[in-house]
Amino acid sequence: MASPPENRPRGAGRPRSAAADRAILSATRSALVELGWSALTMSAVASRAQVARTTLYRRWPGKSELVVDAVADLFDERLELPDRGSLAADIEWVVLRFAALLEQPETKTGLMAVLAEATRDEALRARIRSAIVGRQKALVLRGRARAQDRGELAPDPPGDAGARQAARTVDLIFDVVAGSVIHRALVSSEPVDEDWARDFAALVTGGLTGAGPRTG
Amino acid sequence: MASPPENRPRGAGRPRSAAADRAILSATRSALVELGWSALTMSAVASRAQVARTTLYRRWPGKSELVVDAVADLFDERLELPDRGSLAADIEWVVLRFAALLEQPETKTGLMAVLAEATRDEALRARIRSAIVGRQKALVLRGRARAQDRGELAPDPPGDAGARQAARTVDLIFDVVAGSVIHRALVSSEPVDEDWARDFAALVTGGLTGAGPRTG
Amino acid sequence: MASPPENRPRGAGRPRSAAADRAILSATRSALVELGWSALTMSAVASRAQVARTTLYRRWPGKSELVVDAVADLFDERLELPDRGSLAADIEWVVLRFAALLEQPETKTGLMAVLAEATRDEALRARIRSAIVGRQKALVLRGRARAQDRGELAPDPPGDAGARQAARTVDLIFDVVAGSVIHRALVSSEPVDEDWARDFAALVTGGLTGAGPRTG
Amino acid sequence: MASPPENRPRGAGRPRSAAADRAILSATRSALVELGWSALTMSAVASRAQVARTTLYRRWPGKSELVVDAVADLFDERLELPDRGSLAADIEWVVLRFAALLEQPETKTGLMAVLAEATRDEALRARIRSAIVGRQKALVLRGRARAQDRGELAPDPPGDAGARQAARTVDLIFDVVAGSVIHRALVSSEPVDEDWARDFAALVTGGLTGAGPRTG
DNA sequence: CCCTAAGCGAGACGGTACGTCCCGTCTTGCG
DNA sequence: CGCAAGACGGGACGTACCGTCTCGCTTAGGG
């Protein structure tokens, strides 16, 4: 759940309203869709959330951080990976699932804007990774393990070297899957439909089962 | 060369200074690096370019358009693709080449910012595609043709269906290559080094030469 | 002693801390000196008095009232009028005494600020008159009586008309003395020293003993 | 005429609107009357003057300075001193004239507030003296000269000592007249009517013609 | 001796004004 | 007409206080 960091002493003083938190994040998302990043103002969010502007600043340092948290919620939804029978089918499913997320205007606008803002701000980048991107990586891990169980992929070699190699592969797959879908959807402005998903899954599966990355 | 559209009547009055154009675009790039997108102001550009703010507005409608033009220049550099002997080696070379471009702070910041801005603006998105992204696609075409000459990839089937199939594959490869590199560099914040490029190239080559996208 | 009105039911519950009252008024005075009226905030007073902001509001309705009470204390000091032997000497003494009070930064700032605030608020003006200004008038009465005893001034004529006439004169003297000193010290920004006091006393004594106000 | 200092380079750029200046000062005065010092905001002034808030800040650093200039205008009115035939009558006239000024709510509120603010700010105090208070002193000089011509007052002794003595007397009278009237009107909250003016004039004339300040 | 009503600290809350910065437009005067 | 300079109306920013409101914890009487 996305919300401002709660490392406050607690005990003294009136507690913060949890309802306000929810209202603010929700208002941020809807305002983001209607106004876009640059026209999104703290005032707009505040008035939509029926909350004073100061309350926003009490919880978040600025627009970027607020939007990151607001957008992160959207990526919190079900991350289950139903077993579709084969590695290729699993990949297709993930791709379409992710694409559906990027279809939603709020996700699209928010994600890109926040990424752009993060270009110059490593702290923000880290926040994005932990709040949004990182948790998607679990999917890759699960799908890979399942493919190994099925015998589609070779099991990890034992030992430290094997673990390192596995991690490298997971990172690679993750960048390829997420990056390709984002690029297709947001840069090329072409639909990520079933056809594309099938082509993409075939490409990746072929690469993985055929040669696979060579050991460094 | 990026510059403001020149569909002006021409003839009467003092002509616009070409030197100003150059100074402005260059100032925009340097300011973008130092300040980042959001802190980049027209005033800042104007004072760096030793130019009045009015002069900027006479040539570009706003910040986004100015930055797109300024950044586009950077992608105009050499797009040659030396023959490295194999498909995998060619891909590696392209990846590292592109990564080097993204290392430059101006490219990184500018590209992401402009993409984010474009999320809500199809006209801007088109401008980006034609000015920046599109011309990269030529590389993919050339590399693929070369691999077909070498026999690494099957030649395109004849007829319309074959051409469509070829176009689909080119688009796919392009999204995969560009997207993966961008994601690795700008989201995961991990280096796009020779090791990663080799792994990536192996993955893609395996997918292409092994199964390849099935015909829809 | 200045303090918040105590018309509270009394009996049940924890009684208010008298120490807090003292700390608050003292903190108000010191803060007033260091910060001036406009920069003086309830928060500043609270933190100096080691007291919660709420405690202030429980006792005073706002800044003006708090400052009036705090400043009034300063005018509570010794109001004795030693017999200096002549009307002129008595006036000199009063003038220098008052000037010394206005030298103190807390009195100066506080008095003017409170007067300004009172310009639009008759209730506050009344409070000031009764808490601060009014009690100074006793000095004039005493000095005048003494001068009449000495024979420097004519005794009050008997009857109502005489009393009214006496009251008018006292009011006049009071405004002249207080007003002149305040103007010299706070507007002209010139020192109220012994020379000035002597000149002033000479002027007033001359006016009083010579012609004196004619009967209306 | 009160207005922001005009020590700007001049020549380049669009000149400031003089109409705006007038509108702002006038709006300030009316807002001051209706709202009082503390409720007077820059926004209120701006909207009354049909001017952007930034325009205010371009010309004055803050509220205090703006109000000083606005109030100063009111003291710019006719400062003539008609010859009323005697020193006492002249003084009466000046007193009533000044009192009439202080009756106007704008003058009253503005003057006191500005004086209070100036208590802690010598620069502001100087500005007040030069813009408001100082020019009133000319009246005293003229009245005194006229009384000397009439023979009511002794002529100034020649030489430096005489000039110094004259200056001291003028300063004294000025503080006494202005201070007494202000105190009567704004602190005692009593009317400065013809009766009071006559009493006051009698007191001062008596002091001047009778003993007068002794030589230090 | 405990009960209870108030005091008290802390701090969140809805507001409002501040003074600054930038936007995009407009008016100047000089080439 | 281009151009530099800079005023203009407008709007968002982030900060500081305001006066009110909840909290949980003292802390005195009064039963």
> How many whole angstroms does the radius of gyration of chain A measure?
20 Å
Number of domains of chain A: 2
Q: In terms of per-residue confidence, which ranges of chain A show pLDDT below 50 for 5 or more consecutive residues?
A: 211-216
CATH architecture label of the largest domain in chain A: Orthogonal Bundle
Distance between the termini of chain A: 38 Å
Number of helices of chain A: 10
What is the number of beta strands of chain A? 0
Order of helices and strands of chain A: HHHHHHHHHH
CATH level 3 topology of the largest domain in chain A: Tetracycline Repressor, domain 2
Keywords (chains A, B, C, D): DNA-binding, Transcription, Transcription regulation
Pfam families (chains A, B, C, D): TetR_C_11, TetR_N
Domain HTH tetR-type (chains A, B, C, D): 18-78
Organism (chains A, B, C, D): Streptomyces sodiiphilus
Features:
homotetramer, 216 residues, mainly alpha, Arc Repressor Mutant, subunit A, Tetracycline Repressor, domain 2, 2 domains, 10 helices, elongated, DNA-binding, TetR/AcrR family transcriptional regulator (chains A, B, C, D), HTH-type_TetR-like_transc_reg (chains A, B, C, D), TetR_C (chains A, B, C, D), DNA-binding (chains A, B, C, D)
